[in-house]
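Q: My collaborator sent me two sequences in one message, no labels, and asked for predicted structures for both. Can we handle them in order? The first one she listed is below.
A: Yes, handling them in the order given. First sequence, followed by its structure tokens:
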Amino acid sequence: MEDIFKKDLSGAMVSPDEPGYDQLIGAIFDTMKLAYELNDGYHTPDEVRDYLSRITGQEIDPSVTLLPPFYVDFGKNIRMGKRCWIQQGCTFFDRGGITIGNDVFIAPKVNLITINHDPDPDNRSATYGRPIVIEDKVWIGIGSTVLPGVRIGYGAIVGANSVVTHDVPPMTVVGGNPARIIKKIEVRKKG
């Protein structure tokens, strides 16, 4: 029998009817308990990073700032770089895997969603994941949603309230629902 956590992360369909599904749901509730504790009252930046390390099962770099509340389903499939800034009210559904590079800014109420349901109505409770990859120096604007399987390229900007359904090329600005390229980012050379 394949480990359900590996199967889930691989992108295969996972059904509530299969062995191990209760362990998956149990792990989600364990993570939700930690997130509830994180969101309950004031915590110092170090305490917040400690909670985030416990949620992800990874040591979070001291340069990372997360401003609660923070909502997460599984947590263990989040990988985060250095000098990231994550604002209040963000939701990370990471069962498909979320990779966040260095120097990434994530505005309030951003949703990173890696899970989708089977389109077959007779099997709708089954889910499958696709990873989200956010490369270095990306800025995701307030209220945006990034859907399963999206890669956001180096230095890109996602405009406020966008729904990102496809990959975003490096050094571009995207916006809208669905998000479309608005312009290339031109960087002036210094000196």
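Q: And the one she listed second?
A: Here it is, processed independently of the first:
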Amino acid sequence: MKAVKNILVIADKPKHEQRALHRALDLQKQTGANLNIKAFVFDSHVANGNAFAGKQRSKIKHELIAKHNEWLNSLLKDIDTCGEVTKEVIWVSDIAKWVARHVSDSPQNLVVKSVNHTESLTHTPLDWDILRTCSAPVLLCTDIAQKTKPRVLAAIDMSRHKGKRKKLNKKVLNMAAYFANTKNAELHCVYTVEISQVLKDLDMINPKSHARVVREQIMPELEEFLAPYGVPADRIHMPVGKVGKTVSKIASQIRAELLVLGTSRRSGVGALVVGNSAEKVLRKSHCEVLAIKL
């Protein structure tokens, strides 16, 4: 795949831990990429309220931007960088829409944004909006420390291994392999074998024997597909169940540091979506997630 040369970093709010920035700085050390840091500020009372006259509204807006610039400059003052870093404070209410437009106008290889982490990964409405509208790969990073050898898990779909699905699988694997190489991490792959609930309920199939047959049929094709990426058989996972549960479970079992998965595009002009399976995986994953669109 093409090297990651340009990374758009969505800075966390002041007084937060700035996980996105620190993750992007690590990536810069590994890849030499240029960092394009954007900090966002907006106050609806100033922008739309009736309490301020036009000139006063403009003055307050510029003062808020200036304060944010001071904070951003102080944040980067003592940070060592390994490449070009640009920064800018943006006054906008719809961050996701701005990011989508910016990525369209100035192509980025990667967008990095942090997410909150409590007992489970908590995605904010902004996370989902960016995932649904941004055409570039989006890395949602966390602060979970990995105590084992780093592992990258690529989730692919062999059930529709043709056309667009095949192309998306390759994009997922290319990006997963790239990240694995930059961190000297093990590359794993997961494909979920889904069993028809209707046929199961009607006792028309035996779930265990059916899953075994599917695995035997798919494995040769899967091994051939993964051969260029150097993924051995013991790192190929084929769990049985629903994608939303099994992919997250495998990521947890192998203690993956990063999960790379593909998301879908709905028909219609620019109608990007996450997709039901991908959205379920994202809601249950405890590691960093990199979402790739076709």
